[in-house]
């Protein structure tokens, strides 16, 4: 029996050949990702422990889904998000509808520890929309999601930026036990032990005395002097970089990341947030301040990347904000107030600016002058 089993019939040999061919094809497909050439960087990635190098993230930036929040009437912003995602190869899985504060019924408003405060907080609608995003994750058993607001910009090479960060979190995260691997040594996207990742903060304040962090070189991170004022201030005053320094990223346990333009949540984080922030427990502040307090208290496991990888796209007109004061905005008559006239700071190559490639002169008509000579117009 043992000797005869070593010889395969022609039919079996054919099946075996097909299996081998499929294996080699899949293996070849798995090597098509571009990899980083660290010799071209200005520094070295510290404490490399991975067996293979970083590769670009997938269409959802290595999260299970990407969702974004937008007021239903902001079709201009929705158009911009869809275009920017398409041009950079991203997939937006779900739009979460923004919620006006007035639409949060009085019986559904989060209780507060300060009952004398105005019960109709202007940030109630913002909280409800983000809570709807967390609930969407829970309802659909989504294990991780990137949650963005509809006025963000990212780098043209966003897949490289996030792919490198993901690899660093899995292989170089000295902030976590066992480099953030699971109990059995398994690896997870961005590590196995986090609730919340902040990458769209407008201001970040590190712990006043504990500056524990790890850093790495990112060729798609521009000079620090090009960032918005508060992001630049953090890097210069807290981390002692110079404005001309470029290619810098660092990760810290979150202490005080302000703004929620972009952040990621795990399934566990979504459940904790929905329970802790307005769902079951009292809520006293806008959700970014709630995130800060819960991270400080150790009730959410959070990390922050600096400088941020998602930044605000500023429009110079009433469309820049959905706050009430925005509708009274008076723009300079010479200023382009469309979405296309906006700008962002802190990106090496703005994806929204790059949308200009969709505009231009793509066809010329042939005409004849009086002499019959053909000319292009």
TrEMBL record:
Keywords: Glycosyltransferase, Transferase
InterPro entries: Collagen_mod_GT25 (IPR050757)
Renumbered residue ranges of the record's region Disordered: 326-348
Superkingdom, taxonomy of origin: Eukaryota
GO MF entries: transferase activity
Presence of keyword DNA-binding: no
Entry keyword Manganese: no
Family: Belongs to the glycosyltransferase 25 family.
Record-given protein name: Glycosyltransferase family 25 protein
Organism in which the protein naturally occurs: Didymosphaeria variabile
Lineage, highest ranks first: Eukaryota, Fungi, Dikarya, Ascomycota, Pezizomycotina
């Amino acid at each position: 029996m043992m000797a005869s089993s070593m010889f395969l019939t022609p039919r079996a040999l054919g099946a075996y050949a097909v299996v081998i061919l499929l294996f080699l094809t899949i293996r070849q497909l798995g090597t098509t990702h571009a990899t980083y050439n660290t010799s071209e960087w200005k520094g070295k990635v510290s404490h490399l422990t991975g067996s293979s190098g970083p590769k670009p993230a997938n269409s959802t930036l290595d999260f299970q889904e990407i969702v974004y929040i937008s007021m239903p009437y902001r079709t201009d912003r929705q158009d911009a998000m869809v275009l920017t995602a398409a041009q950079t190869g991203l997939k937006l899985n779900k739009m979460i509808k923004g919620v006006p504060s007035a639409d949060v019924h009085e019986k559904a408003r989060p209780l507060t520890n300060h009952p004398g405060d105005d019960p109709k907080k202007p940030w109630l609608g913002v909280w409800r929309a983000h809570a709807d995003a967390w609930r969407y994750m829970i309802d659909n058993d989504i294990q991780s999601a990137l949650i963005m607001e509809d006025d963000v910009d990212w780098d043209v090479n966003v897949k490289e930026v996030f792919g490198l960060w993901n690899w660093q979190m899995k292989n170089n995260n000295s902030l976590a036990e066992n480099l953030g691997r699971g109990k059995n040594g398994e690896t997870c996207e961005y590590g196995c032990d986090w609730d919340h990742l902040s990458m769209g903060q407008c201001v970040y304040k590190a712990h006043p005395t504990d500056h524990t962090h790890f850093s790495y070189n990112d060729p798609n991170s521009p000079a620090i002097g090009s960032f918005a004022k508060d992001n630049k201030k953090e890097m210069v005053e807290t981390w002692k970089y110079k404005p001309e320094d470029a290619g810098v990223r660092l990760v810290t346990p979150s202490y005080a990341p302000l703004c929620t333009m972009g952040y990621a949540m795990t399934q566990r984080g979504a459940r904790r947030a929905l329970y802790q922030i307005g769902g079951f427990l009292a809520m006293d502040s806008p959700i970014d301040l709630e995130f800060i307090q819960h991270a400080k208290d150790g009730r959410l496991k959070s990390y922050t990347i600096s400088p941020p990888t998602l930044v605000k796209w500023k429009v110079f007109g009433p469309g820049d904000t959905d706050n009430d004061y925005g509708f009274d905005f008076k723009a300079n008559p010479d200023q382009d107030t469309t979405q296309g006239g906006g700008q962002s700071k802190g990106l090496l190559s703005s994806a929204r600016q790059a949308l200009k490639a969709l505009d231009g002169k793509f066809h010329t008509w042939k005409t004849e002058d009086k002499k019959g000579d053909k000319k292009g117009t």
